[in-house]
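Archive entry. Fields below.
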Amino acid sequence: MQASKEEYFIPDGSYWPIVGSIGMASMLGGFASSLHDNSLGTGIMVLGFGLIIFMVFGWMGQVVHESEQGIYNKQVDRSFRMGMGWFIFSEVMFFAAFFGALWYARNLSVPWLGGSSNNAFTNTVLWPEFKSVWPLLQMPDAANFTVPKAIIHAWEIPAINTLCLLLSGATLTWAHWALLNNNRKQIIVGLIATIALGVIFLSLQVAEYAEAYQHLDLKLSSGIYGSTFFMLTGFHGLHVTLGTIMLIVILMRVLRGHFNPDNHFGFEGVAWYWHFVDVVWLGLFIFVYWL
Amino acid sequence: MATTTSDIQDEIDAHGHGAHDDHHHGPAKGLMRWVKTTNHKDIGTLYLWFAFTMLLVGGAMAMVIRAELFQPGLQFVEPQFFNQMTTLHGLIMVFGAIMPAFVGLANWQIPLMIGAKDMALPRMNNWSFWILPFAGSMLLSTLFMEGGGPAFGWTFYAPLSTTFAPASTDFFIFAVHMLGFSSIMGAINVIATIMNMRAPDMKLMDMPLFVWTWLITAFLLIAAMPVLAGAVTMMLTDRNFGTSFFDAAGGGDPVMFQHIFWFFGHPEVYIMILPAFGIVSQIIPTFARKPLFGYSSMVYATASIALLSFVVWAHHMFLTGMPIAGQMYFMYATIMISVPTGVKVFNWVTTMWRGSLTFETPMKWAVAFVILFTIGGFSGLMLGVAPVDIQYHDTYFVVAHFHYVLVSGALFSIIAAVFYWLPKWCGRMYNEKLATIHFWWAIISVNILFFPQHFLGLAGMPRRIPDYSTQFADFNMISSIGGFAFGASFLLLTYIIVTAIRSGEKIEEDRVWESAKGLEWTVATPAPYHTFDEPPKKAQILSESSHIGEH
Amino acid sequence: MKYVILLFFVFIIYSLGSALFYMMKDGDGSKRMVKALTMRVGFSIGLFLLLLFAFWMGWIKPTGVA
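PREDICTED_STRUCTURE:
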């Protein structure tokens, strides 16, 4: 047997997974209860969420600690990289389900309700008044839905947001190059710029939602347009939030002197995540706001 | 449960020394060992016991279903409760029994078969398991909630699951989220293990077929489970937050739910059968004493089945309404899958051809798998033909079809795998005589249970109903008798397994079956807590290969 | 115009995907990942500028601008 670093590191038993499971079950169970007016539900949900946060920081903190002690060899590093890569593939498929719903609504269900293809009878029998247009402001039967006055225009906030995210991708890549060239100052500046752009994006997104809800009556309940719009941008926003938090953690680690040109999976994993979120946004900008 | 499993482990510890130069800590003591464990063998054991428990729970629900259908008219349960039973029976068997059982086998066997120390991401491995008991309890708890549990069938089509569903559906949705999360993490772990932890001298085409089929299954899981998560998320918002994904009044479409569901659902059925193919491809060469016939064609067939599985989903929806061109496409694409599947069946038969066959219990189950799975495959072929599916759709013919592939297919392969590898795991042999009795009991009763359902379906009996017209009475009674007998066979199975673990005859040889090939047979019996600190060398990998061909 | 946009999108996804592949395959010390990511940022900015330009020239019309 060679030096210990040559050996694949198998951790000892850990409490974090069970903490995570209890947290997850309480959060989701609490949420489901709160949906049915169970007064305890919200409290349990918050508690579960807290447990999950505790677990994530505890678990990841342990991993970072082990990594900095040099316990991990190249092979362990590769396992983490594969884990991250396939996790992101699963995220791609998650978004694919919602993009698929958008595609289906725009190209099939709404035109069919309007009588296209061989569905003239559908239109006549169900809602003869209904006209198929996109964006769909007037739903077939508006009784249970909120009719929006207008939608968010692509060349207002969304365009600025696109610019923000694209620039953040550039600053992050700048920091990435700096990391490979071991230029600490440039890494820090690049990361701070990226985080700042992420925060600006999120604040603008909040402003946009507020505008949609308060002035345009564009809500989750605004028919299929509102449903797809908020689900896609909402889940994307959630991912930006996560990405920003992860970038902040990475920045903290850089400030503590972690990472070097030969050991920086944490950075690369988060960076790729950010680029992925960025490209999803580009898809949203084109397919949701724009086309 | 915990005591039984720690007994196995005590056995393992008692034997593990000597054969194994041990510089690791042994397993921790007590319950916390199982909660904290990062050992692939511990986690595999946990998965298998969980799956077995769920199998018994889901089986009990099946007994309720068959009791109610024993005679026409309403006998024992309310129709609403009957619907809850069919729904939860399906969900529990799919997500609680079959899938976790395969993941358990993967945990135990993949590191042993590729000469790895452990799974690639051991802590995450623990988490994948420990989500399951919580998710399973959440799913079962819906039965006790106001308004009852989900009663819309395991496919939970909208609007039954949105507008007309009980309040407990939201708990069901989150249980599915958790089960999906667990499956995805498990699959990521399997891929990382196979790609990164393999003995350096083992090329991809040196891998045993069980490893290959699991690699491809893991890919299917990562691609399909998030889509299911998306579908239930849309259900959740439709139910609670006013969205209209599946509501035509808002511009959505309930049919869209079916498309999204089956885009997950069809790969899902291959997720439940590909590892079974792998198991059978390990067992048949051992007892035919011949290398596996057509190894590389097996690998390519598995891969092509997996890829095709993503482009055939709408054959579940021929009666939902679809343009003729769509029906034609989905029919031909579906039938195309029978080509690689046929390759597999012929390869198994050819492996046995002129072999020195013996029929120990694992081999009995494997041969039964080949025959009965093929029957299920043929009825699937019939269902895939769009014009005749109009007659079969949503009848008991469909029920018979998928029980042939999932019970006498997936479940039988799991039983075969347990009989095949259990002696290696715990160093004790099961009772061959009892196991033979159990085998014939189960094989005969399972056919009495499911074969008449073909006739019921062809005669027009719809599925998911608690009462039926009197013309169906005879076949239903036969089917129910088969059902009770098959259910009772699991009591015997439990007895056989538990006595084998606790007091079975001890085995000394590393190679439990004299003609078995594979790296798992080179470690001590019972398998020590830690194995393959040093990866096996090329020569050993080649001599342990159960197939010939390019290495 | 639609196809030009789609073509750009394909390039972006390709470079992003290859960055993922290099991240998994190469490990630390390789520059292939960061190069692929640089390409992807370049393509994205290019696409955005193209959209702006096409909009300004009146070649394309976004929905919702009635």
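CURATOR_NOTE: The mean pLDDT of chain C is 81.
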